[in-house]
Records
---
Amino acid sequence: MITRLPPAAYSALSAAFKKGMKKYPAASAFSILDTCYDLSNYTSISIPTVSFTFDDAADNGIFGNTQQLAFEVVYDVAGGKLGFAAAGC
């Protein structure tokens, strides 16, 4: 499962990411993955940092398990909190 965001949030994230990647050539979209780049001629790349902040007013989205592979996820059900930490796995 990949991360899915509400349209307004995705548009803002996509625009900011594209701005940070403007020195690299764009590639054709692959299905719903429309922020693609041709990095075949590069030996070193710089990818913008992306972070997520959740609040009570957030629209529903899906934070996919693909983005969670190298993270520990802590669920505080009683406290109504969710936490992430780099796990290095």
---
Amino acid sequence: MPRIIAIDLGTKRTGLAVTDPMQMLANPLETIETYRLMDFLKNYFQKEEVSTIVLGYPTKLNGTETEMTPKVLALKEKLEKAFPNLKTELVDERFTSKMAMQSMITMGSKKKDRREKAGNLDKVSAAIILQSYLERK
């Protein structure tokens, strides 16, 4: 069964998560510089079979757009053109960063590790987005 990949887009860094081959569990994959995203995905899709790309869709608490919303929509369009054989879906990402931080605390991450946002928080946020997609599905 092909995997599902999730993207938590950021202005500088982007978190990625992927399902296991049975599409039951979401696992943090990588945090990369945002400008490298398309190259990373092209390489990843050559190695792994993927059926769906899940994008975290940012909105404010009242449902209105954030400054990242148009960037995510532009990325969705770009992904659909670059990978027309893959399904691309948007998933509400409100609270995922807070949930990721709480998850890291619960799992016993040291304060120093949690501060290293470049590696941990973004990919854990992507995993939370992906897990919520799996639970809805």
---
Amino acid sequence: MRLSRRTFVLGSLGAVVAPRPAPAYPFTLGVASGEPAPDSVVLWTRLAPKPLDEDGQGGMSRADVTVDWQVSTSESFARPIAYGNVVARQADAHSVHVVAGGLAPGAEYFYRFRTQGHTSPVGRTRTAPAFTSFGPDLSMLFASCANFEHGFFTAYRRMAEENPGLILHLGDYIYEGAPSPDRPRQHLGPEVLTLADYRRRYGQYKLEAELQAAHAVAPWLVVPDDHDVENDYAGTHRLDNVPPLSPAQWTARHAAAYRAYYEHLPLRPSAAPTGTSLPIYRRIRWGRLATFHMLDTRQFRDPQVCGGVWKACPGADRPGRSITGSAQEKWLLDGLAKHEGTWDVIGQQVFFAQRQDKRGAGAMDYWDGYTASRERLQKGWADRKVRNPVVLTGDIHSAWANDLKADYDNPRSRTIGTELVCTSITSRADGTATTAIPNGATNPHLKFYSDRRGYVRTTIGRDRIRADFRGLDAVTRRDVPIRTIRSFVIPDGRPGLQAP
């Protein structure tokens, strides 16, 4: 046993100094990357030895902590090509968002963090191709709606096993509700209202090994939806007052939710919220292959009409109503007009295509509750001759594939786009084996439906997108295998769904 000079001297004087205990392992929530650009990517972690502590501090002291980071082309990290350090601040729940720059376009990298004598798990990430390059075909998965109480996160494990190049998450990363005693597993604590509550809830979700594996395998692009804050909220408006909150309490909850969302996901520092403002809509170019337009359909929308329920509601058709807000709508149409990629992929939260019953009723929380907004967007991309608009959607807890029509009331109307809707990771539990399209006779442009849980696997190429709807037969049991329920292709220049 080797003794330091200080220990030897003090020991000789009869004052035995016990060695200071090493800090507890802080990387319990894993690592993540996101926001790939041709020369950079965001690296994320949060130091939290005890992420379930009620105070939301994750078992950390009030001190800020320096964290080292490394990026390498090999898992051995023999020759790191980018490295540095960053301060994990107590005010940010000791989370870090490192923009690792100086990277090569279209390249695969490995990354890790170190602090206080501990080393994080290794994550894999990649940069986007150069703006002038198509690069190889892109394997991209997208998912939404992971309710911890409704089942196990097996779908995240299966996503990791696909080894994708990119993952999109379209909202409801967490659920805010109180525990339900009849569920297979329960949320910790009551319904989340405070910043400490939200941090603890994220800690409970991110402790799941399956979610950590999905984050560690590829970069993510994320947008929040309602349950990341509160069910069915619209801008500053609450659809109902459950639980009862004063305006000040609602504002505090809203701000806490956005802050915790940013703290726990691999977003660029420019996306850090200010109060109840979260600058989340943005555009990510994947070379000349695709442009991802990531939308926010919660923060700027007009309140839902007719209580947000399924109804034939004349107010839904008012010309001035918007689900995106005018500034975001203009931003989207201006971006679509640039024609920067073969595919214009619109990542957003709620059901886009018209879906009504024979009485004309539809869901007022979806784009059916904002018909003028949908008509402006669809006409806008048609007028701008957008070649391949593809809308990706989450939220509805079932899988759909839809043709987007210039006039939904005319079955012979021109198809001007395609919508792919992912099912949930767990929300609504196991589901059923049915593939009969609800209200299919009334909506012939709706081409596919599945009630299983899972995700969508896409392969984005220069001449087509292939979409495989991947489903699990159960999420209330662990480690269930996944299978492809149905596949479609979208040919370049021919909007709409075709058989593969």
